[in-house]
Amino acid sequence: MKYLRRALKTSIELLLGVAVCMRHQENNLLIPERERGQAHKRRRTSEPIEIEDRLESLICRVGEKSTSSLESNLEGLAGVLEADLPNYKSKILRILCAVARLLPEKLTVYTTLVGLLNARNYNFGGEFVEAMIRQLKETLKNNLYSEAVYLVRFLSDLVNCHVIAAPSMVAMFENFVSVTQEEDVPQVRSDWFVYVVLSCLPWVGKELYEKKDVEMDRLLSQIEGYLKRRVKTHVPMLQVWTADKPHPQEEYLDCLWAQIQKLKKDRWQERHILRPYIAFDSVLCEALQHNLPPFTPPGHMPDAQYPMPRVIFRVFDYTDAPEGPVMPGSHSVERFVIEENLHCIIKTHWKERKTCAAQLLSYPGKNKIPLNYHIVEVIFGELFQLPSPPHIDVMYTTLLIELCKLQPGSLPQVLAQATEMLYMRLDTMNTTCIDRLINWFSHHLSNFQFRWSWDDWSDCLTVDLEKPKPKFVKEVLEKCMRLSYHQRIVDIVPPTFSALIPADPIFTYKYPDESASSLPGYPMSITVSNAIKNRASNEEILTVLKEVPNPNQEDDDDEGESFNPLKIDVFLQTLLNLAAKSFSHSFSALGKFHEILKTLANSDEGKLHLLKVLYEVWRNHPQMIAVLVDKLIRTQVVDCAAVANWLFSQDMAHEFTRLFIWEILHSTIRKMNKHVQKIQKELEEAKDKLEKQQHKRRDSGDDEDMDKNSEDEEGQLEEQIERLQEKVESAQSEQKNLFLVIFQRFIMLLTEHLVRCETGSVDISTPWYKNGIERLQQIFLMHHATIQQYMGTLENLLFTAELDHHILAVYQQFCALQL
Amino acid sequence: ASQQLDTFSSTALKLSLCSRVGKFDGKKTERQCVAHKIYVKKHIIDIFSVLIFLIVYHKRSPRVGKFTEDILLNFLKFSNFFCHCEQVHELFSKSGDVKRIIIGLDKIKKTACGFCFVEYYTRGDAEHAMRFINGTRLDDRIIRTDWDAGFKEGRQFGRGKSGGQVRDEYRQDYDPARGGYGKLAQQHRPTEVRNSF
Fold it and tell me: Which partner for B80 in A83, A175, B53, B177 could form a disulfide, CB atoms 3.0-4.6 Å apart?
């Protein structure tokens, strides 16, 4: 046995020419990230585990760069696995099912492998198919819809490898499409089943049509009927641009349908997909095929979370790649397959940007397509995806930087070209996407010494500075400054751009010196300043502040505890002035005088005024405002609703279109959401603990002492649960109130504008309005999961039929997203 | 015992950082960084890259509080001594909400000497920083991040003999943003001048 093992080992190494060592573990995706680094520790463990790991490694690495051809590697691996089937069958099944689910970009490599195994061992083929069906049911039950797509696609490609009989595959598709006949289900459910069927056709359409053309025609016409009667209210909310030129932003099912139509017209000739099984046709066609068991799609469950609809992002067409291979047209199936594969690569490798970049750039078949253009388009498509990108924004920035490093001679130019094109189309770009573009572009520039041909964009200087283009440049420069310093920005832009340069982020003090002596708060500011410098206690300072006259007050007053704007003004201005040197100083200040601040701001008006003063002193340094507001919320000096009211107040109206306002608002909403989630989690944990306690008591028997103790504990837990329940309810009520405040303010502002325009017979579409209505959309999009809970209240109180239809449309589009 | 952390400027008014780093629900939290679980990666001391960071993740011990708060510190070293808290905050906020930044100081001069700790609220955010901010540039210099074993008072000071970072003791090249030559090289230079005649 041992000799056989050694012989196998040598043959593996010979055949595949790969030094099998534990380093492979580091790239092995089936092992969780944390364990990969410890792979070397396993070297000394028992042989069977070694063999299993080696099998996993071999299977995962097949198809990658190798000295031998893919076909010979597959042949060799099939031989090795066949020999290992008697002892490691379940492990091999598990690995193959996993790669089908997790490595979709190598779909055809693994289907070929399964095909070869099936040809050598019919029973194994049958067991694999059964395992796949089980896995498919599991993924659907667990809302893992994108993985389910990959599994179905894998099964459909197995038809090409003679593992599954075509008629049984068609039958499965028919069952999927019959979901469109279901009533009272969300549209996104039937959407998904149609999407799965259509997205498999590039791989298997030809084969299925050859065997079952009548059934396929019927299937396609059923799909066509469904697509025609689908509701598409949601589409405008998901489009990156509001204009249809130069590229229409198509809904994803419409685009795919057009691509499949074209494929059908081309008689299902598809030339892009790599199909290793063709080389093995003589072997595979001898194999016996299996029938898929009849698969009924699981019924709709109320907690099912189907994928949201998407819009296909296009920025390039075939005229944009100046030399080299031509980009496939937007309705060609090649475009779909390429984009799908690139999305899969990013999905698999997004956590390791170097690997991801390398994998993207070594895309098979790259010589026939303008790969750099596809990559850039796919990456931007994900970055701008609405409601939110599939992965964290900063990943895309570093991925693009990595790609530029690997292809310094070609990719930066494509990226620059794309940036230029995005700039040109800013006028119709969705505000949320512009935000992301600003963040991406400034971060990218900061990695390349801020080098950019700003003069190319001097057209933005000739228009109203509130228009999208100059606004974009202004916000980019502000973000660039945050990543460097003011003088740097002054140096990098031409002098003509001086109007767009951000303000020097300095503190603006109301009481700097004698020149302010006429102001009512001036003398007190000196006193307070000295008190702080002399390390007076909080009580002492409060006593000092009592002397501040209240401009609002009647003569017969109480302790002076009511809202005194001048007191707040004097104290906060003085304190922040002393602490203006850095973030750390300001945080220290807020921390040390927390009690005083809480006292001063113990009413709604107080909180509002506090924020107003904060803005006044730091209006040139939006970043500082944001971090101080964050601290004030976290230390409960102000609450979230106060911040929302402040941002929408008349005093801040002139800043309403600036990016920092919305960053503060969204950060505030996020803090509120996290707070609620945290308490809910505490409640769940306490409930679990109680349940465990109760189980223990039941199982432990009749020990009197134990009983008494555990009863006490249970009583304590129940009390705790009650308290936490109250906490959750009050937090949720605060959260609901926050959203109500925000939406109410939006409605007031937007309605005012619309009414004014109507009475003045002026066009409503000013830059301000576009910003405003899209910011409202943004609230829905960025916090859709939380807002879903409060739909009933929103509909009853705010988004009623009496609302202006422009505003109501946003609400209706949002509702349509999950229907 | 609550710890006071002085701010880092030797010139401006010294304001003491209150020990009450407020939690969202207003509970008092002492800055007791009890390391329950420590992930410590090997230092990546790379002579050619400019920065070394350490990131820390430590869970509050169950003895201390009812709730666990993930406190994560990125300890990062700058190449440029003049990097400011604000730039660091802006950059590291891209991977999640930053809780706190502590600038590393020269032990003797008490000025910034090119490293700092960045603390997050959750482990996931620190992981994102390791994945996507590590190895990119801040102020034109590559920065590196690594896991750290927890910030304790006193760790913000450089441990080189001259008060700055250890790597600046041995640096041979001239880097104006890092105070000129390395400390050892500076000691040797007078000899060279004498020999030039």
Answer: B177
CA distance A605 to B191: 70
Residue-wise pLDDT for A63-116, tens only, equals: 888 888 999 999 999 999 999 899 899 999 999 999 999 999 999 999 999 999
- Identity at A626, one-letter amino acid code: A
- Least CB–CB distance from A394: residue in B20, B133, B139: B133
Q: How far apart are the first and last CA of chain B?
A: 62
Fill in the amino acid letter for B12: A
Cβ contacts of A591 on chain B, cutoff 8 Å: 17-18, 20-22
Peptide bond into A387 cis (omega under 30): yes
Tokens of A289: 């095929």
Residues 6+ positions from A788 with CB-CB distance below 8 Å: A818
Q: How far apart are the first and last CA of chain A?
A: 60
Q: pTM for the whole thing?
A: 0.84
**To the nearest whole number, what is the mean pLDDT of chain B?**
57
Q: Is A447 on the interface with B (CB under 8 A)?
A: yes
Confidence of residue A507 (pLDDT cuts 50, 70, 90): very high
Nearest to B145 by CA among B95, B71, B81: B95
* ipTM (interface pTM): 0.89
- Whole-angstrom Cα distance, residue A192 to residue A172? 14
Rounded-to-integer distance, Cα A342 and Cα A94, Å = 25
Q: Name residue A176's amino acid.
A: F
CB A84 within 8 Å of CB A252: no
Stated length of chain A: 819
Q: Which pair of structure tokens corresponds to residue B192? A: 């060279």
CB A397 within 8 A of CB A440: yes
**Do the Cβ atoms of A584 and B25 come within 8 Å?**
no
Dihedral angle at the C-alpha atoms of A677, A682, A686, A687, nearest 10 degrees? 0
